[in-house]
């Protein structure tokens, strides 16, 4: 087939749609690639405008080779998000410069869909969803334009049709979204664990949690089944840290193999957590989690963890015991939790050696808490730096710190006093959303506390921060800090109307998380159970999908047929037949031309048809726009139309 | 392609050739994914795996939305072709070797518009109509090469559309019983018969050869003796041919099969007669045509010319009766 230049309007439409899809990736692309893509887009536009020519095969081949080498050098791989996006953007740009046929145009549109998809691996908020819809409309309009060879409709019409296509697809898409059998990903193991996300880590150094507390980002949201537990019980358990190297606390091994201590619990509280992606494997639960949600395990330190990192919004049902007693842990575990690095912090060790004389470990705990309560300790986000021996410097010199200082020093003292102890990190508290239906736990609620092992009670939570700043437990960091102004707006309690509005909007984000982002295998099972299919498997789901989809399609077809039958108005059908016969002899009715105007034009062009056709037009106009239905007039229209056979001009 | 052949066999069993206009209906309308459609399906599969691997819920939403749009597009492709009327083509007779233009009328009697309709013939000739508004008619012209004189059967054409997204193609075949007409190619170098025994005036000179009347462009079949070679060398393009005005009225020319040497085969004789007919008519003569088994009385004018050419086209063919 002969090569024809692509119509300029089609180029503008497709380049616009692709630019819209690619622009969202601007921040991810390296600058050289971004510049290259922009240049390619501009080049293609200039070609459409008639100012430049498309590059020849040699130039294009050289560009492609250079691009491939650059990608391989910069990323070293073609797998992974960033490399994939760079590849897609570059391929779109190169393909644009090669676009000559309709097939190329379709390939470009397909690349556009992939670019939209790639964006969702970075962000899936409601705004991104809006962007997605817009991008789809633009791409579908460009896709539609590919169908036309010469006269593509104006952009407004194409966009309108694209919107209609999209809207018509929504019911089936919704059905598929809800019922298509979901399985828990990933299918194969490339996960970017390195993605930097805000959240707790498995290492705690002085200042690390204070840093986190400056972020107002949401860590997770919680909906309680019954009455929410009191603030003093809202300790959300995260990673447990039991190794100390003189500076940092960290999780020693993962110790999955160790037996979990038996627990006797009472008064379980049930709730649902919607966890924001934090890039780590652990999940959060109220102290002490009673069971693990599907696909997660409860480890030997009572930490919930999943097989894979949480890189998506995760929703799980959970229950916890607020009152519990744990059995004796393994001896190895207790030994581990008495260990300190040899030497260092002589003053703290001397103090602990005094407490060691107390026979009851609980008395040693009380002695330590009295130390914190009795001396002038301050609760602050920005304590002075600790020099020399950090624990000694904190306990006896600066006496100012955030929760990690208190928890770390306390556990150090306890271990020095021969009480098994460990640091627990997580969140404390959370703010009730405006409607009171759920609680928002933010990074600013991040907290660290301690756990000691007492022979008669098992593992027991001790929060030394509460001894210094009891308001922290009741009201969050805002009420307890020396400098509340350093907290982000959303973590404060005095934000005024801006904060109030943002909190109202949070309900939207919460609903989005619950119903869109966290809709996975679990949620699907839940929904189906509520609909009356508690144990449906994927085959059942497929059947259900086919049945509902087929039924829906049949219903839609019936409705369309009925509407078509309704629309087959005899007056319109007769009039159309008469007009079609005139069109055959070269007299076409304009799209906006009324019957009488058309009859006048026909009379002018073909006077011999004037009588017959004017009569038909008058009858039709009277029947259609006149007083009302008239059987005799309709019969007359039918008779005249059947007898109307215009000939070609001799 | 084997699928298409299979569908074609099935189609022919269900609907034979038609004499009049054909309206597309559900039972003879077929829809299959195009290659782009198959690629799109693979693309959606890749995107689905991608969404699964990253647990990207919004990714699932995008995949399902695109799948639903494509599914709906299949129905629209089907409906875009439904209830269209294809009329048998109008075709002007041509001389063998010239392409014939088959003008198929496509009528959309429904109120809604149709888009991107494509008509193709078995030989690959193709015509498109981008927009056909409600109640309108369009003419789609397919060029068909001709090689032999006689009837030119309309044959089977394929009416197809890929609107809206090019992912599916809906098509049907329409076969028409009618045929166009191909005149013999006007070839042959023999001069017009010189009024010989059949010319009552008996002036001894070939009529139409005497008074130089002017020059016109060369047409196939013009005798080489008439070409104004000296002028031809001076200009580019078709060589000019000398035209001679013959005195009207008194000369009656018979173009007779029997005048031609029996050594020539039938087609060559018919071609020569065709060339004579054109020449005689161009010269404004009164002429008659005599073929084995038929004769046209001397006359002139377009109708006479048409009758003569038709007789030549259908000479000794099996289906000359309806001419």
Main features:
A: 650 residues, alpha+beta, 14% strand, B: 323 residues, four-stranded antiparallel sheet, 6 helices, 33% strand, elongated
Plain-language structure description:
The complex is a heterodimer of chains A (650) and B (323). In chain A, the strands form 5 sheets. Chain A has a 5-stranded antiparallel sheet. In chain A, strands 8-3-14-17-18 form a 5-stranded antiparallel sheet. A 3-stranded antiparallel sheet of chain A has the order 1-5-4, with no helix packed on it. In chain A, helix 12 (390-398) links the parallel strand 12 and strand 13. Chain A has 4 domains: 8-179, no CATH class; 203-338 and 420-491, no CATH class; 524-560; 570-643, no CATH class. The model of chain A has no long low-confidence stretch (mean pLDDT 85). Chain A is of the alpha+beta class. The relative contact order of chain B is 0.12. Chain B has 2 domains: 2-182, no CATH class; 247-314, no CATH class. Chain B is elongated. The chains are: A alpha+beta (650), B alpha+beta (323).
Task: Describe the sheet with the most strands of chain B.
Answer: 6 strands, mixed
Kindly estimate the percentage of residues of chain B that lie in beta strands according to DSSP: 25-35%
Quaternary organisation: heterodimer
List how many beta strands of chain A DSSP finds: 18
């Amino acid at each position: 087939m002969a090569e024809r230049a692509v119509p300029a309007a089609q180029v503008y439409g497709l380049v616009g749609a692709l630019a819209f899809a690619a622009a969202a990736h601007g921040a991810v692309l390296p600058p050289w690639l971004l510049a290259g893509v922009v240049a390619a887009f501009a080049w293609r536009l200039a070609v459409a405008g008639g100012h430049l020519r498309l590059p020849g095969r040699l130039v294009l081949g050289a560009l492609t080779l250079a691009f491939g080498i650059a990608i391989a050098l910069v990323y070293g791989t073609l797998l992974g998000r960033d490399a994939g996006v760079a590849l897609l953007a570059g391929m779109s740009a190169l393909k644009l410069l090669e676009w000559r046929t309709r097939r190329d145009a379709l390939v470009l549109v397909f690349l556009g869909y992939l670019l939209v998809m790639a964006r969702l691996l970075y962000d899936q908020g409601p705004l991104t969803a809006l962007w997605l819809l817009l991008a789809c409309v633009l791409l579908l309009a460009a896709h539609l334009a590919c169908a036309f060879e010469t006269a593509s409709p104006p952009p407004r019409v194409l966009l309108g049709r694209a919107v209609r296509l999209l809207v018509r697809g929504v019911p089936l898409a919704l059905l598929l979204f809800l019922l298509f059998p979901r399985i828990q990903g990933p299918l194969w193991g490339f996960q970017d664990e390195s993605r930097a996300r805000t959240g707790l880590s498995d290492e705690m150094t002085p200042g690390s949690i204070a840093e986190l507390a400056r972020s107002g980002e949401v860590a997770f949201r919680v909906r309680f089944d019954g009455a929410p537990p009191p603030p003093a019980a809202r300790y959300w358990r995260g990673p447990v840290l039991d190794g100390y190297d003189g500076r940092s606390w960290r999780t020693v091994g993962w110790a999955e193999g160790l037996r979990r201590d038996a627990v006797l619990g009472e008064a379980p509280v049930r709730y649902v957590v919607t966890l924001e992606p934090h890039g780590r494997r652990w999940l959060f639960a109220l102290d002490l989690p009673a069971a693990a949600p599907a696909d997660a395990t409860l480890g030997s330190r009572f930490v919930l963890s999943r097989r894979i990192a949480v890189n998506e919004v995760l929703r799980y049902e959970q229950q916890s015991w607020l009152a519990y007693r744990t059995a004796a842990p393994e001896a190895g575990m207790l030994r581990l939790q008495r260990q300190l690095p040899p030497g260092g912090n002589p003053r703290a060790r001397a103090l602990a050696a005094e407490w060691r004389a107390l026979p009851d470990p609980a008395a040693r705990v009380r002695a330590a808490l009295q130390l914190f309560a009795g001396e002038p300790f301050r609760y602050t986000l920005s304590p002075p730096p600790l020099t020399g021996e950090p624990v000694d410097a904190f306990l006896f010199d600066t006496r100012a710190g955030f929760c990690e200082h208190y928890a770390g020093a306390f556990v150090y003292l306890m271990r020095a006093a021969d009480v098994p102890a460990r640091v627990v990190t997580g969140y404390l508290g959370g703010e009730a959303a405006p409607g009171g239906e759920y609680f928002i736990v933010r990074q600013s609620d991040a907290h660290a506390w301690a756990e000691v092992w007492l022979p008669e009670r098992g593992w027991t939570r001790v929060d030394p921060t509460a001894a210094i700043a009891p308001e922290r437990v009741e009201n969050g960091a805002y009420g307890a800090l020396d400098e509340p102004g350093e907290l982000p707006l959303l973590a404060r309690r005095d934000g005024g109307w801006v904060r109030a509005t943002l909190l109202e909007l949070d309900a939207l984000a919460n609903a989005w998380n619950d119903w869109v982002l966290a809709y996975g295998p679990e949620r699907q099972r839940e929904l189906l159970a509520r609909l009356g299919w508690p144990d449906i498997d994927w085959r059942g789901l497929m059947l259900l999908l086919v049945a509902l989809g087929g039924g829906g399609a049949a219903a839609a077809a019936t409705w369309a047929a009925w509407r078509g039958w309704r629309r087959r108005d005899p007056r319109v059908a007769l009039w159309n037949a008469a007009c079609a016969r005139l069109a055959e002899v070269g007299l076409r009715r304009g799209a906006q031309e009324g019957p009488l105007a058309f009859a006048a034009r026909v009379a002018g062009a073909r006077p011999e048809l004037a009588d017959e056709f004017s009569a038909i037009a008058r009858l039709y106009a009277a029947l259609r726009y006149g007083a009302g239905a008239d059987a005799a007039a309709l019969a007359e229209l039918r008779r005249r139309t059947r007898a109307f056979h215009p000939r070609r001009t001799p | 392609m084997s699928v298409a052949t299979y569908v074609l066999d099935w189609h022919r069993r269900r609907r034979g050739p038609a004499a009049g206009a054909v309206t597309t209906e559900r039972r003879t309308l077929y829809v299959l994914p195009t290659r782009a459609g198959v690629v799109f399906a693979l693309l959606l599969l890749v995107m689905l795996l991608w969404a699964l691997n990253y647990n990207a819920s919004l990714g699932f939403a995008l995949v399902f939305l695109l799948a639903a749009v494509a599914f709906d597009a299949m129905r629209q492709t089907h409906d875009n072709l439904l209830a269209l009327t294809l009329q048998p083509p109008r075709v002007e007779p041509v001389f063998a070797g010239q392409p014939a233009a088959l003008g198929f009328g496509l009528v959309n009697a429904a109120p809604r518009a149709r888009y991107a309709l494509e008509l193709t013939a078995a030989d690959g000739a193709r015509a498109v109509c981008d927009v056909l508004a409600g109640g309108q008619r369009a003419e789609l012209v397919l060029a068909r090469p001709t090689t032999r004189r006689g009837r030119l059967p309309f044959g089977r054409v394929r009416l197809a559309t890929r609107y809206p997204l090019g992912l599916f193609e809906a098509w049907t075949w329409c076969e028409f019983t009618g045929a166009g007409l191909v005149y013999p190619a006007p070839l042959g170098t023999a001069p017009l018969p010189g009024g010989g025994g059949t010319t009552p005036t008996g002036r001894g000179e070939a009529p139409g050869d005497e008074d130089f009347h002017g020059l016109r462009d060369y047409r196939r079949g013009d005798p080489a003796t008439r070409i104004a070679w000296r002028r031809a060398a001076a200009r580019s393009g078709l060589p000019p041919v000398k035209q001679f005005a013959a005195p009207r009225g008194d000369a009656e020319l018979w173009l007779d099969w029997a005048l031609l040497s029996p050594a020539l085969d039938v087609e060559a004789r018919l071609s020569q007669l065709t060339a004579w007919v054109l020449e005689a008519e161009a010269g404004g003569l009164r002429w008659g045509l005599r073929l084995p088994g038929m004769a046209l009385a001397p006359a002139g004018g377009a109708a006479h010319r048409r009758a003569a050419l038709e007789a030549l086209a259908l000479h000794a063919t099996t289906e000359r009766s309806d001419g």
